[in-house]
Amino acid sequence: MNKHNPIPTITTGPLPASRKVWHPGQIHPGLRVPMREIELHPSAMEPPVTVYDASGPYTDPEAVIDIARGLPRPREGWTVAGDVERYDGRQVQPEDNGFVTGERLTPAFPRQYQPLRATEGKAVTQMAYARAGIITPEMEFVAIRENLGRRAAREQLIRDGNDWGAAIPDHVTPEFVRQEIASGRAIIPANINHPEVEPMIIGRNFLVKINANIGNSAVTSSMEEEVEKLVWAIRWGADTVMDLSTGRNIHNIRDWIIRNSPVPIGTVPIYQALEKVGGIAEDLTWEIFRDTLIEQAEQGVDYFTIHAGVRLPFIPLTAERVTGIVSRGGSIMAKWCLHHHRESFLYEHFDEICDIMRAYDVSFSLGDGLRPGSIADANDAAQFAELETLGELTQIAWEKDCQVMIEGPGHVPMHKIKENMDKQLETCGEAPFYTLGPLTTDIAPGYDHITSAIGAAMIGWFGTAMLCYVTPKEHLGLPDRDDVKVGVITYKIAAHAADLAKGHPAAKLRDDALSRARFEFRWEDQFNISLDPDTARSFHDQTLPKEAHKLAHFCSMCGPKFCSMKISHDIRAEARAQQGMEDMAQKYREGGDLYMPADAAGQD
Amino acid sequence: MNKHNPIPTITTGPLPASRKVWHPGQIHPGLRVPMREIELHPSAMEPPVTVYDASGPYTDPEAVIDIARGLPRPREGWTVAGDVERYDGRQVQPEDNGFVTGERLTPAFPRQYQPLRATEGKAVTQMAYARAGIITPEMEFVAIRENLGRRAAREQLIRDGNDWGAAIPDHVTPEFVRQEIASGRAIIPANINHPEVEPMIIGRNFLVKINANIGNSAVTSSMEEEVEKLVWAIRWGADTVMDLSTGRNIHNIRDWIIRNSPVPIGTVPIYQALEKVGGIAEDLTWEIFRDTLIEQAEQGVDYFTIHAGVRLPFIPLTAERVTGIVSRGGSIMAKWCLHHHRESFLYEHFDEICDIMRAYDVSFSLGDGLRPGSIADANDAAQFAELETLGELTQIAWEKDCQVMIEGPGHVPMHKIKENMDKQLETCGEAPFYTLGPLTTDIAPGYDHITSAIGAAMIGWFGTAMLCYVTPKEHLGLPDRDDVKVGVITYKIAAHAADLAKGHPAAKLRDDALSRARFEFRWEDQFNISLDPDTARSFHDQTLPKEAHKLAHFCSMCGPKFCSMKISHDIRAEARAQQGMEDMAQKYREGGDLYMPADAAGQD
Question: Which residues of B fall in the annotated binding site for [4Fe-4S] cluster?
Answer without folding.
Answer: 555, 558, 563
